[in-house]
Structures are given as structure tokens and as C-alpha cells.
Amino acid sequence: MDTTTQISILSADQAEKDLLIAQLADLGFDAFEETEEGLHAFIANADFDEAALKALLDKQDYAQTVIPKQNWNQLWESNFEPVQVEDFVGIRAGFHQAIEGVIHEIVITPKMSFGTGHHATTYLVMKAMRDLDFKAKSVLDFGSGTGILAILAEKLGAYSVLAIDNDDWCIENSLENLVINQTQVIRVEKADSAALLDQYDLILANINKHIILENMDHLGKALAKEGTILLSGLLVEDEADILAACAKNGWKHLFTNTRNGWIVLGMAR
């Protein structure tokens, strides 16, 4: 992927930003930066559908910029700040000082892959992972982005982790992050869906409503007996539709946690 398209939209309303992120994610945008003035959204130039964007935004104004790969990396690094999920986990780039006072620390190369801990859904999933038992469990990270959740799963004791994503850039970035964090049990594969042959004790699906619903049958087959799945990349208003789909798989609702209008759902077979 040589270039990235950046869309900048003016908006001071947080609820509107949250809705835009969800809608743009459905169009293939996979990285977002919220500012006081509005929202920056990023997508691989080859995947950008301007007609679909205009239909979504209707008559709302936006600015469009094409960012060369190297310039994007420099921009991302210059804006990347460490993230801390309570005293549980700290996420930083290699050029930051170590984060003191956390149980786990993850070093992420800040490139154009979704999942650095800054977004509410990544934060929510990591916080929910604290209360799950990963020891000697098999894990599927569906829509792995940077690989951050897979890395945390290994740190929590998982014996086997499969991280899948459909984006070449995410695969490249994940592999780099696995090396940085000296992981041992994580396998990264490119896949367009959760249609897999194996079953997993724990599934992490931090992606978006459309893809989760599209893959619900596959996820149902992939979740082992007595397994647990975390579903996120979802807005508060998505909960009813997701719970209805989960019920068809016979899953039990364990909890819903919220942050800034986003949710993570814990479900069990």
C-alpha cells in the first residue's frame, strides 16, 4: 500500500463523531483521529470509494488529502501518545519511556493499523480481558489490526493465538509488533472472514457491526463449548441487533461495558 487517503470532517459533537467513525468503518476506513475541530479518517487509496463517501456524507463538507506512505508513518509517530488502561496495561511506542505502575506493557509500532489503545473499543476490550481466564486457552483475534489484543492474550497466559485480518498493512504491522514484544505463541494469517476449521476457547472480535453480523455464523462455529467471546467496534445503539444475532447462536449475555458511546459485549456459549 503506497498511499493513504485522509478525509477531514468538521464536527464538534462527540455523538456525531462516534456515528461517523462507525459509518466510515463500514466503508473501509480503518484508522481515525479525533481532534477538537472534528475527525480525520484514513483509508488505503486503492480501497477509497469517493462516490460511497459522498452518498454517506450527503452535502456535508470534507477535505481530502492523499498521504504518501513515508509521510503517513512520520505523521502517525508524531501524534502517537502512550495509553494506559488503569493499572492493567500500558501501550507505548518504542521511542517512549517505559510506563511505570502497570502489570503489562505492550510496545506498538505506530503505523496505519487500527488498534493502539487510543480508541474506546480497544480500551474496552483490553479492560474486559482483565477479568477473563486466558491461562492454557486457545484464542482467536478476529480483525487483529496491530495485533495488540493478541499480544495481550499471550501475556495473560494463552497457549495458542491466531490473529487474522484482511489487510496486508495490518499483517505487516502485526508481525513487526510480535517481534518487538517477543511473542512465542501467536500466528498471524490473512483472511477475509472467520470461516475457520478450528475452535477457540476465547474469541476477540473488535471490528464493526457489519462485519460481526456478516460473520456471526462463522463465529458461532469457531467458539468452543463453554467458550467466551468479546464483541466490540460497536456503538451503544448496535447492542440490540448484536444481542439478537448472538441469541441465534445460543450464546448467553455476560455483560455490556460502555465508554464514550461505544460498547463491548461479553458472551458465552
What does this structure look like?
The chain is α/β, with parallel strands linked by helices. It has two domains: 3-78, Alpha-Beta Plaits; 115-268, Rossmann fold, CATH 3.40.50.150. It is built from nine helices and 14 strands. The chain has helices at 14-26, 50-57, 69-79, 120-129, 148-155, 168-180, 209-214, 216-222, 239-248; strands at 3-10, 31-34, 38-44, 63-68, 83-85, 89-92, 104-107, 138-142, 160-165, 186-190, 200-206, 223-235, 252-259, 262-268. It has a seven-stranded mixed beta sheet, with helices on both faces. Strands 2-3-1-4 form a four-stranded antiparallel beta sheet. The longest helix has 13 residues, at 14-26. The relative contact order is 0.12. The mean pLDDT is 89.
How would you summarize this macromolecular structure in one to three sentences?
The protein has about 270 residues and is of the alpha/beta class. The protein is built from nine helices and 14 strands.
Secondary-structure-derived class: alpha/beta
Query: In one word, what is the shape?
Result: globular
Task: Tally the structural domains.
Answer: 2
Helix content: 25-40%
In angstroms, what separates the terminal alpha carbons?
39 Å
What is the string of helix and strand elements?
EHEEHEHEEEHEHEHEEHHEHEE
- Largest sheet: number of strands, sense, barrel closure: 7 strands, mixed
Overall mean pLDDT score?
A: 89
Strand content: 25-35%
Radius of gyration over alpha carbons? 18 Å
